[in-house]
Amino acid sequence: MSSDIANPRFPAGLRVLVVDDDLVSQKVARLMLEQLGLQVSVCSNGISATKLCASHDWDLVFMDYQMPEMNGIEATKSIRSNPEINQPTIIALTANARDEDSEACILAGMNDFLTKPLKRHDLINIITRLCSY
User: Fold this and answer.
1) Measured between alpha carbons, how far is 43 from 106 in angstroms, rounded to an integer?
2) pLDDT tens, per residue, the chain with 133 residues
3) Which of 21, 37, 59, 62 is buried most, with the most CB atoms less than 10 Å from its CB?
4) Rounded to the nearest 10 degrees, how much is the dihedral formed by the CA atoms of 125, 14, 75, 112?
């Protein structure tokens, strides 16, 4: 992996799922990740995320913390408890930066978390750190 923050090199074919109920957040995350050369799909809630994780292999899932129907914590627990799912790296996306929120994410089985609004250098750093295989 290149340490060059301007032009990072990630593993070829890295598959990314963005789960967020906000359309603008979906578009921003998708654009930023695609500009990094990643294959990106999006869905709008935890129920869809659990179904997509059961039917497709994802390397990396960016999971919104607060969503209607099924929030990111519940979706992550569902994904982690399903032995049929090829377990992806899950990163929480949250507008809240409270310690109890980050702790809840980790306890649910998420690998890490990022705060919104997303920043390119934060995305690069977390992907580099967690997906260097």
Assistant:
1) 22
2) 444 455 677 877 889 999 999 999 999 999 999 999 899 999 999 999 999 999 999 999 999 999 999 999 999 999 999 999 999 999 999 887 677 888 889 999 999 999 989 999 999 999 999 886 5
3) 62
4) -20
